[in-house]
Specification:
Radius of gyration: 22 Å
GO molecular function, one term: structural constituent of chitin-based larval cuticle
Pfam family, one: Chitin_bind_4
Distance between the termini: 77 Å
Organism: Papilio xuthus (Asian swallowtail butterfly)
Shape: flat
InterPro entries: CHIT_BIND_RR_consensus (IPR031311), Cuticle_Struct_Prot (IPR050468), Insect_cuticle (IPR000618)
Keywords: Cuticle, Signal
Number of strands: 6
Mean pLDDT: 81
Length: 106
């Protein structure tokens, strides 16, 4: 009988535990086009309002100037209620973000 009570308590505790931690976002939408070679692209949207879109391709394949060039955008809701959006290019020149809230070099 004691074993049954202990087992029932474990089952009750497991059922009462949340499936995800408080505040954990869930993926709402996910689209991917990537076969492992050549260009790729993906889009992810989460339940907390984060949206990510990216595409990339290899430039100058097989040369000394070979480089991956990635273009994308992500947005997220700030604590102040504003949705912040960053558009970027990443290539042989580095990560180049742009956004209304990001200071730009003059």
């Amino acid at each position: 009988m004691k074993l049954f009570i202990v087992a029932a308590l474990f089952v009750a505790a497991a059922m009462a535990a949340p499936a995800t931690p408080d505040g954990a976002a869930q993926i709402v939408t996910q689209n991917t086009d990537n076969i492992g070679t050549g260009p790729y692209q993906y889009e992810i949207e989460t339940s907390n309002g984060i949206v990510i879109r990216e595409q990339g391709q290899l430039k100058n394949a097989g040369t000394d100037n070979e480089a991956l060039e990635v273009q994308g955008q992500y947005s997220y809701p700030g604590d102040d209620g504003i949705v912040y959006t960053v558009t970027y290019i990443a290539n042989e020149l580095g990560f180049q973000p742009q956004g209304a809230h990001i200071p730009q070099a003059q």
